[in-house]
Amino acid sequence: MTSTGSADERLNAFIGDLTAKGFLPDPADIWAKALRAVPRHAFVPARAWTASGPIDRDERPDEWWDAVYSDTPIITQADDGASDPTTGRGEPTSSLSALSGVLYNFGHLDLDQGHRVLEIGTGTGYSAALTTQIIGEGGAVVSVEIDAELTAVAEKNLAAALPGLKPAPTLIVGDGTGGYPTDAPYDRVHATCSVQSIPSAWLTQTRPGGRIVTPYGRWFGYGLVAQVDVLPDGTGVGRFPGTSGYMPLRSQRPADDHPAEWDAPGARVTRTVVNPRTIAYAPASADLVITHLAPGIAARRADDSLWLLDGHDPGCWAIAVSAEHEDVFEVRQHGDRDLWDEVADAYFRWQSLGRPVLDRLGLTVNEDGERLWLDRPENVIV
C-alpha cells in the first residue's frame, strides 16, 4: 500500500522528470499544475499490462506504482474486451498512453481557456480530465467512446479522481467517426486514436479557425500527427509535425484475417532487384507518400520479410522476402491488386520528389476527400 504522501512524491518526481526533458507543452507551469491536479494513478486499473509484463496493484504494488509513474504505455484492454490484457496476448485495443506522447499531441492542439473541445476516444478518461483542467470553467469537453464498458470505467475514474469537477466532461457512447454534432461547433477536435483519413464530420463540427489534431496513417508506417486548421469555407489545411503511434479508430481498422502464406495456392511469383528492407524501413515521409499513392495497404515488418495486406480485402496480400538470391529478391502476390508493385512505385515517386522530409508535406481536406501536397497546397502529389 502506498500512502498519499508517497503517491504525491511519485507524481511530483514524474512531473519534474518530464519538465526537465522538455515534454510539457507551453505554458509549462500551467501544464504542470494540470498534471498535479489529475493524478495518473487514479486512471490505471488494478491489473494491466506493460512492456515489462503484467502489473498488479494488490499482488505487486511496487511494480504497479513504478509503472504508473514511468513514461510507458499501460494496456488496459485487449481484443475489445474479449481477452484479459494482463496475459500479454491478444491485440491491444485501449491503453493509457505514454505520457510524453500524450503531451506531445496536446502541444500541437494549443488549448486555451474557454475552448470547447471534442475528444475522440475516451479510454480511461485521463486525457479528458487533463483537457478540462487546461480549458477551465468557461470551456467544455465532449468525449466520444465507442465502447460502453470503457465509458463506464472512465466515468467512475473521473468521479473518483476529481469529485465536483467543473465543467465535468460529457461522455458519449458512440462511433467517433461522426463526432458529436449536438454540441458543435468545437474550437478543437482531439483524437486519441489513429485515422487513415480524417472524417468529414470532424471538419464540419470544427468552427473556422479551429484545429483538429489526430494520429494519422498508422496502417503502413508507425503513424504520424496530423495538425489541421479549418478555414471559413470548411476546408482543412495542415501539416504533419511528427510521428505518433496510436491504436486505430475502430471504424477505420484494417482487415486482419488475411490467409497470407508463402506457399498459398494462386499466388503470383515475381522477382525484384529492390531490397524490401529499403521500403520497409524508409523514413516517415516515404510512408506518408506511400499511404496516399497506394491507399488501403497495411504493412507488417518481419525480420526476414515485408508483408503487405489490403486493409479492405483479406484475399489480397503480398510477401517480399529480404534474403537475396542471385542478385534478386522473391515476391509473392495474391488477389486483385499487385500490392508490392504499387508500394514500390509509390516509394520511387517519393524518391523522384527529392526524398522530401516530413515537414515539407501537407494535407488539404474537404468534402471531396484528401490531397497530399509538397511545400504548398497548389503543388499536389495526389
UniProtKB/TrEMBL annotation:
It holds the Pfam family PCMT. It is an enzyme of class 2 (transferase). Keywords: Cytoplasm, Methyltransferase, S-adenosyl-L-methionine, Transferase. One of its GO terms (cellular component) is cytoplasm. Transmembrane segments: none annotated. Belongs to the methyltransferase superfamily. L-isoaspartyl/D-aspartyl protein methyltransferase family. This is Protein-L-isoaspartate O-methyltransferase.
